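Give me the fold.
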Amino acid sequence: MADSKMMKASVLEATRTMKIQDVPLPIMGPRDAMIRVDAVGLCGSDYHIYTGEANYHVDERGLPVPLEVHPQILGHEVTGTIVDVGDGVLDLAAGDRVVIDQGLSCVSEGKEHLCEYCSSGFSHQCEWYREFGITGLPGGLAEFIAVPAVNLIQVHSDRPAVETVMTEPLACVLHSLETVMAAPARYQFNAVDPDQRVRCALICGAGPAGLLFIQALRKIYNYQGSLVVSEPDPIKRKLAGEYGAETIDPGSTDLVDEILTRTGGRRCEFFIDAAGVGLIFEQIPALIRTQATVLMYAHGHGGTSLEAMNAVQFRVPTLLCPCGASGGFDEDGRPSIYRRSLQLIEDGTIEVADLVTHLESGLESVPTSFDQAYGSPGYIKAVTLIQGAGSGI
């Protein structure tokens, strides 16, 4: 590593105001590893922070800390290469390629006693949870990041960084589906009784999450029933179809009429909001069967008022709101769901290459990705290459 104590980072100083600055190198403790950041996936959560729609950095009262008071370095979908490790790290070394669990939990902090959330497999709901790139801790939109070595999963394949960086998004989807499968809902994917089995699953939105949900349901959970995706973008619809979904263009046909026709008036037993569009909630009551399961995955939800929830509640759904990539820990203390997610990408079970539609280089490209690419026709996912040399990109 260079002798300089400074590094370049993309700093969000105010809403839609991101500048390249020299900032101090992160401090590496004895249980930590210093990572040269190779690639960062740009998430919808990053975009919402960038535009001012969200701020997950809060004070002790739970109130948002303004960017003008505490500028943020975003980026929580991170893959990189180790350049140094602390004296207490014995199972990783400089040169190892890794993906990062960006959440700090009881295990990350080396606590002797785990909180009730960490001890029950909900590491991203840790009582003392903090998150790089989200809750005020500096994230991956920088040349280097230092994290506890126990948060790192080693890459063992030649998959490029532009693919391994998708580990975190897939881990979030896996956690969500694990929550669904464990929920005591009326309708189940694996129900023995046909009357209690999910016959039609509807996903609104074929962005990165929607496309990962399709693959996970088909390839991991072996769901063979009707899997319908509503998506206005033709490029996304095509990819959803290739992954095994029936598709609907809500811009050219009435979504409710289509679902009623396809289900013989029964409606859907399982619904995923993977779009984060508030107007969808006005349609949910007409799309779901009474006591269906509704998975609220996406964030955002602008465009409608909370009154839309009245009719949703009247359907008495099992309403699930999983967040993050929570999971248990393997024997080495590392997050099992991240390890599983990376393995699924490395062995090709889950395809992620086609989800990255916008590949940019350099920290200075991030505002362009947010202001011009995000949400444009055909846009699915942007990945920023921070330092490509030797990264396996």
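Residues 389-393 have pLDDT under 50 and may be disordered.
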